[in-house]
Sequence to fold (154 residues):
Amino acid sequence: MPTPAERLRKQAEEEWAARLAGIFSDQYDDLVDEIGPQDRPTNPPSTWWDEWGVTIAAFVGLSLFELTQLSAELQISQVGVAVNWDGVLAAAQDWTNGYSFGLVRDLNATSQQALQGLLNNYYAGRTDYDTLLSMLESRFGPTRAASIAATEVP
Fold:
């Protein structure tokens, strides 16, 4: 009989595999659209590869973060250590105010300030994830918004 921790881990692994499969499926569909008809295919531009590289790297980075968080939460629950989650949130807000957005390429100063404001509102609890994503999409487009959200929001 699996322990609760083993069940949680199995569930997390299944969700991760499904999310990764979804990314690769989206990438495949986008590639098919990008290369054109079978009788006259074209190579996708390097920017296409760059965007998908960022998306996949962001997913892997976020996955490592989530795994670390899950492991920490499991250890906290087993040991019984108290965590000040308000302090963690405050530290996340402070981090967004000074972060340079190094994983988000080619941001001009105006876009960086706008992104910083959006993330600050998110971490302050004034904006939920879906609203944040919608606002990112209106500013950066759906593909780039998804990449930004994946790299900048745990």
Summary: The radius of gyration is 19 Å. The longest helix spans residues 46-79. The helical segments are 4-35, 46-79, 85-98, 109-123, 129-140, 142-152.
